[in-house]
Design a protein that fits this description.
Elements (H helix, E strand, L loop, with lengths): L2 E6 L5 E7 L8 E5 L7 H12 L3 E5 L12 H10 L2 H16 L6 E6 L1 H12 L3 E7 L17 E8 L5 H13 L4 E9 L13 H19 L6
Parallel strand pairs: 3-4, 3-5, 5-6, 6-7, 7-8
Antiparallel strand pairs: 1-2, 2-4
Helix pairs in contact: 3-4
InterPro entries: AB_hydrolase_fold, Dienelactn_hydro, Dienelactone_hydrolase-like
Organism: Bradyrhizobium niftali
GO molecular function, one term: hydrolase activity
């Protein structure tokens, strides 16, 4: 449904990503950030789904073509740990945001796992964003302090998550509230990465559909929507 495109980062360098456009022109935009596996078919599929819901969706390729197979967590960890999160967010993600906002459209940011952490960093460091939806990822405070978040956030976390633990989530929620920031937070009795339908061991369809509906409604409220719904 979508296509691979090249877009400019603020520093003038080229970046690539997968773009799926809504059927109507002048649609709001959503930048979609990959899990630690890379820009997988599953992330492309989510862009297609956002497009069907009335948003232009662009997933920047933060690993520059590298996609790690689902069984190889060591390789995924290596890729994630070698990623410059600040460069990826302030340059590649910001470039994708600027690309989608070039016709004056409002743009939101969402991401999963690694991408959830990038979404919170973007909420601090990417001024063109209007809203963000976080899926089971929180960055270290030195990358993005809750007090510095500049946009409304919605967040989805799993109670059986041993990476983005319930304790970590509670700390983030408390810090956001203490700073008077706009946060809608949902917890699901599910595993980390429960939205990823290609990983049957962790996928929870009921939780994933509930979270998806909430995310679409949140983005429609904050970005506007050109969907028929």
């Amino acid at each position: 449904m979508g296509t691979t495109i090249t877009f400019k980062r603020p520093d003038g360098k080229d970046a690539s990503g997968y773009l799926a456009n809504a059927a109507r022109g002048n649609a709001p935009g959503v930048v979609v950030i990959q899990e630690w596996w890379g820009l997988s078919d599953q992330i492309r599929g989510l862009c297609d789904r956002f497009a069907l819901a009335g948003f232009d969706a662009l997933a920047p390729d933060l690993y520059k073509g590298k996609v790690v197979p689902y069984h190889d967590t060591d390789a995924a960890g290596k890729e994630m740990n070698s990623l410059d999160f600040m460069d990826a967010t302030t340059q590649t993600v910001r470039g994708a945001t600027q690309y989608l906002s070039r016709n004056g459209a409002k743009v939101g940011l969402t991401g999963f796992c690694l991408g959830g952490a990038v979404t919170i960093i973007g909420a601090v460091h990417v001024p063109e964003l209007a809203a963000g939806v976080v899926f089971y990822g929180i960055p270290p405070e030195q990358a993005a302090k809750p007090a510095d978040v500049k946009i409304p956030l919605q967040a989805h976390f799993a109670n059986k998550d041993d990476w983005c633990t319930p304790e970590l989530v509670s700390g983030f929620e408390k810090a956001m509230k203490a700073a008077g920031k706009s946060l809608e937070l949902f917890r699901y009795d599910a595993e980390h990465a429960f939205v990823n339908e290609q990983r049957q061991a962790v996928h929870d369809r009921e939780a994933a559909e509930l979270a998806w509906g909430r995310a679409i409604k949140f983005f429609a409220n904050h970005l506007g929507s050109n969907s028929a719904a």
